């Protein structure tokens, strides 16, 4: 367990990081982003009580959806395409987007302190995926701010030094199913596993953020091509490269 002195040193570091994170927000707020008109279906975990990362019980969407997270298969359909080794996630046949832009659209009002101020003044366009980078900058400030607050609480109240509890021997007479959901930096991450009576994993399904974003990446890339027809080939290539970087895909994660 970290000592109080260690926690104090960490808090000093996070306070320095707050200045750097604020600088990032100002930098990304000052940039000129390509303007495109899309119809993004945004998805995020959420409870409506706090800015959810670990404990969201529901999948929420700007398309008026609220589904229990454990029933994610009712929301996300995966497709395999002949030209790609990755899977593509769709919702009712249409592309979907997860990540910082989606979270701020659905949960931004739950931010606190300066992070909330940045959110209110950032002029985010939630139908422009290029703005995901600005959303990431705002989230970075939020999480550093939250880390600083947690450290302050631990310094004041101390660390609860509970003994580590080791798992007991697995015993079950039936098939068990478990679902784990978390908001990773790139977006919602789903793990589904089934375990038999012997404790052996008989089924595993993982849906990563990039799986969900790939469908939207394709759709918005086509929008860029359609809306930028008057631009040079070099300019369109640059815009497409910027678009892909804004989504921040992990292709390796989406191959399973």
From TrEMBL:
Mg(2+) binds at residues 206, 256. It comes from the Bacteria. One of its GO terms (molecular function) is nickel cation binding. Its cofactor is Ni(2+); Fe cation. InterPro entries: Ni-dep_hyd_lsu (IPR001501), NiFe-Hase_large (IPR029014). It holds the Pfam family NiFeSe_Hases. Fe cation binds at residue 253. Ni(2+) binds at residue 250. Keywords: Iron, Magnesium, Metal-binding, Nickel. This is Hydrogenase/sulfur reductase subunit alpha. It comes from Candidatus Woykebacteria bacterium RBG_16_44_10.
């Amino acid at each position: 367990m970290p000592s109080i002195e260690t926690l104090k040193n960490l808090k000093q570091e996070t306070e320095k990081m707050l200045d750097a994170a604020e600088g990032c927000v100002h930098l990304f707020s000052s940039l000129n982003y390509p303007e495109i008109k899309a119809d993004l279906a945004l998805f995020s975990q959420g409870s409506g009580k706090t800015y959810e990362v670990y404990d969201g019980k529901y999948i929420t969407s700007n398309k008026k959806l609220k589904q229990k997270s454990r029933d994610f298969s009712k929301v996300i359909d995966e497709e395999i395409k002949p030209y790609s080794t990755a899977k593509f996630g769709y919702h009712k046949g249409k592309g979907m987007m997860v990540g910082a832009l989606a979270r701020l659209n659905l949960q931004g009002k739950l931010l606190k302190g300066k992070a909330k101020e940045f959110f209110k003044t950032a002029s985010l366009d939630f139908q422009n995926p290029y703005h995901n980078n600005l959303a990431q900058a705002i989230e970075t400030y939020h999480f550093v701010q939250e880390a600083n607050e947690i450290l302050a609480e631990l310094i004041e109240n101390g660390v609860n030094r509970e003994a580590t509890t080791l798992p007991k021997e697995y015993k079950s007479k039936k098939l068990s199913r478990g679902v784990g959901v978390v908001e990773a930096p790139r977006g919602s991450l789903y793990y589904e596993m089934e375990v038999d009576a012997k404790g052996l994993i008989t089924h595993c399904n993982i849906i990563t953020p990039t799986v969900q974003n790939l469908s939207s990446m394709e759709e918005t890339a086509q929008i860029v091509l359609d809306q930028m027809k008057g631009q040079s080939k070099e300019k369109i290539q640059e815009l497409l490269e910027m678009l892909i970087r804004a989504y921040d895909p992990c292709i390796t994660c989406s191959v399973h």
